[in-house]
Design goal:
Order of helices and strands: HHEHEHEHHHHHHHEHHEHHH
Helix content: 40-55%
Shape: globular
Number of helices: 16
Length: 378
């Protein structure tokens, strides 16, 4: 009798929260019913497996297009992606601050469905960080949710954070969105707090300009090493291209500003530029691979007016990039023939660039990027 009581004492505290998670499924990992139906959290690492299940793994999900990336791609809405690609089966699989190892898990599950025809793959600077193969937060990425077995989902079932999120959903205190197509889009928040204007204030420009002379003293006249190690290429990119030769891969390098590249001059930028060279060679060797780069488009990356900080650009840039890639705009396609010139230009300008904003004296223009002014004839 005492043993039975002891077992019940142990089991009941586990059964109740587990049952709660099964019923609510706070992050839509297993189903879309119950109190969480149609309402989504900003925790993309937990929500993304549900997006894959819902939009990629269903029986009529063939021919899907998936977009993976970080916060610099978050302003790309589902409507943007579907309109630009002409594919109503396009899916956003974006995770803020995500690293290559996380992209590997996302893509492995999505591509294993056999329903993906095209991948739009953001290649951000984290592919060249020393921590490229590490998860950015200890225990923050639920690897068990990115496979097709339920055997290890107990880590979700009995997760304290998941249980508490479920309780907040029940009590109405959880911050949720009912628009999965704009989930985690930050552009409007940046406008509300005048973040674009702050970044272009005269004092901000002055403070950032103080970095120029020390950088020139250390790096002026140097050139990047084209053979710099780029291990993420072999570990996290090539295996997917080789395993899925019938999937079209569109790699794109986002237009982080010259200011951010300036901070990375040294091993980080050298690694980014070496990776670009390897990707250009890969694209030349395989018909299903294309590489685009937007960080060498000077009208954009040299002007702080289009940014809320050194890396995050205004929302209309995201749509413009999609349209330029769909149009195969030759200004942004990277090949073995032009990659060396790009490397030299980016390195030199990262070293020499003097911060500038065209909206410092016209705050109403901060954060406003007109794609019509950046036509192919520009």
């Amino acid at each position: 009798m005492y043993f039975r009581t002891y077992l019940l004492t142990l089991i009941i505290p586990l059964i109740i929260p587990a049952a709660l998670v099964i019923w609510i499924d706070p992050y839509h990992v297993w189903h879309d019913n119950g109190p969480a139906a149609g309402r989504y959290s900003e925790n993309q690492r937990y929500e993304t497996p549900g997006h894959i299940r819902r939009y990629v793994e269903c029986e009529d999900c063939g021919g899907a297009t998936v977009l993976i990336g970080t916060s610099v791609s978050e302003n790309t809405t589902l409507d943007d992606l579907r309109d630009a690609t002409g594919n109503e089966r396009a899916v956003r699989l974006i995770i803020e601050g995500s690293y290559p190892i996380e992209h590997r898990h996302v893509l492995q599950r999505a591509l294993s469905s056999g329903n993906v025809d095209e991948v739009w793959w953001e290649i951000y600077r984290n592919y060249s960080l020393p921590e490229y193969a590490e998860f950015p937060g200890d225990g923050s990425f639920p690897t068990a949710l990115y496979n097709n077995t339920l055997l290890d989902d107990h880590t979700y079932l009995l997760n304290h954070g998941v249980v508490m999120h479920g309780i907040r959903i029940l009590t109405g205190s959880a911050e949720l969105s009912d628009d999965v197509g704009t989930l985690n889009r930050w552009h409007e928040d940046a406008i509300d707090i005048a973040r674009y204007q702050w970044w272009s204030e005269a004092e901000t420009v002055r403070l950032i300009s103080e970095r120029v002379d020390p950088r020139l003293q250390e790096w002026a006249g140097t050139t990047p090493d084209p053979d710099h190690p780029a291990p993420a290429y072999d570990e996290f990119i090539v295996p997917f291209v080789e395993q899925w030769p019938d999937v079209r891969f569109r790699f794109y390098i986002p237009p982080v500003s010259l200011i951010r590249h300036g901070v990375g001059v040294g091993d980080l930028l050298a690694g980014e530029l070496a990776l670009r060279g390897r990707l250009a060679e890969l694209a030349a060797q395989r018909d299903n691979v294309t590489l685009y780069a937007f960080d060498q488009y000077e009208p954009l990356v040299s002007d702080m007016a289009y940014y809320k900080d050194s890396g995050h650009y205004t929302a209309s840039v995201n749509r413009w990039m999609l349209e330029r890639m769909v149009a195969e705009d030759p200004r942004f396609i990277v090949t073995p023939d032009n990659v060396e010139a790009q490397r030299q230009w980016l390195w030199r300008n990262a070293v020499e660039h003097v911060p500038y904003s065209s909206c410092t004296d016209a705050p109403e223009r901060c954060g406003v990027f007109d794609p019509q002014q950046h036509s192919p004839d520009d």
